[in-house]
Amino acid sequence: MSETTAPWWKSATAYQIYPRSFCDSNGDGIGDIPGIISKLDYLAELGVGFIWLSPVYRSPMADNGYDISDYQDIAPEFGTLDDFDRLLAEARQRGIRIVMDLVVNHSSDEHPWFIESRASREADKRDFYIWRDPAEDGGPPNDLQSFFGGPAWTFDASTGQYYLHLFDRKQPDLNWDNPALRSEIWRMMNWWLDRGVGGFRMDVIDLIGKDIDRGITADGPRLHEYLQEMHRETLAGRDIVTVGEAWSATPENALLYSGRDSRELSMVFQFEHVSQQWDEKLGKWKPRPFDLVALKRTLNKWQSALAQDGWNSLFWGNHDLPRAVSKYGDDTHYRVESAKMLATVLHLMKGTPYIYQGEEFGMTNAAFTDIDQFKDVETLNFYRLQVADGVAPEDFIAGANENSRDNARTPVQWSDAPGAGFTTGEPWIDINPNYTDINAEQARRDPASIYAHYRHLAQLRKDLPLIVDGEYRPWLEAHPQILAYSRHLDGQTLSVVANVGSTPLQLDVPPGLQVRGQALIGNYGARAQIGAVLDLAPYEAFAILS
Ligand code: NOJ
User: What is the model's pLDDT at position 281?
Assistant: First the structure.
């Protein structure tokens, strides 16, 4: 039965904005909320149903806003609360909801809570954070490492204890075991929800139930208890979407978050498909070659795990990951073809697709040559650590050019004007010089552009319940260059076939996948039939409805 009561976010296409790099309205080189407002027509035309807005709260910007010093105010470089309210209203008029980034595993060390907490061991808010005595030798209480490199503990000389920070030392972890902290968070969340936001993307939410003394960080013993309390106290009864960032999520535990009886979240972001190419020792700084069969295994596993219950989020990129077309496609010889291929195979799967800003017209990785061009705290920390450990600086930079978070953070290329239409000033991070060829203005004019392709996919999702609800069946799972699947609902079939490679390919098609029907979408023109033998062009992808 097709679900007539499916929540709006199942048929919506999501779009992530990283405000610092999106659009600068006042020439200070930093994107801002008025800049976002000026692009709402563009996003409405693209067919976006909701925006995940990376943090815009007041922050010293040690991690570009993922270090919040006031949860109920806007960073001055991004605008004011009035600007934010205007954004909400203008977006709503265009049928777009604004989903806030909720960063509550940690705050900034400049948050008044932390300032009070570190003031003395007896402070009222001492227990809002995680403090421990030094080990016997005076060193950190245990050997937990920060995700940004180095120890996860920093010593505070004035009170003689260490505080925990699973990220930068300027991002102290909040103590979720403290009920007073939790009620402050519920109050703050309700304040935003009452203001009209469309929900939350929850930063590293799988870390909140941690048991530090047993060395457990992700997926800790109290995680689901806290998420259920959050649901009761803030989310229940509201028509919103929630998506939890959960690097530790597995197909086995995903239903705990988003199953129909879980009373927690709408969906999680899992990262298994985007992190399988990392080196065991040097991690993402030494990427391994792309393995399509392994990627398909992961995607198929997640599709099947959440087939009957729960819901998938679908994404290739975000502000922490490299540009999709550079990572999984060919950004030199087949940029347009491979970007459309990636969009096709992702957006026709079951789940809610997320577009990362600039992906919709095929922005590529940066090609930085100097470490000074990198701005990201994680990249710079690991550069220091790995170079001290003997890695050659140029090798690190080569790895960073493949996987550093800054790849996704170069400014959105709106036009071929100086400053790429992003800013009239000096951008906070270098603009990719390819903006003269790759930009939104050009893509919007061209009916055969990547942008037009994304727009088409967003429209198909609104028109065809099969894309939202249809059962997913993988095909040709062991094929090293083909990604194929079909979707099924109420006697209808959608067949999707893609050549994930830069060489043409002749495919012997399995009988069950041979169909004749309506050409739905393709990156080399229409196909209405799959016969016994299929000649596929480089990165060709198409879908047929039968
Ligand atoms: C995940 C965010 O996506 C990332 O950008 C940030 O650095 C960490 N969480 C810490 O907040």
Answer: 85
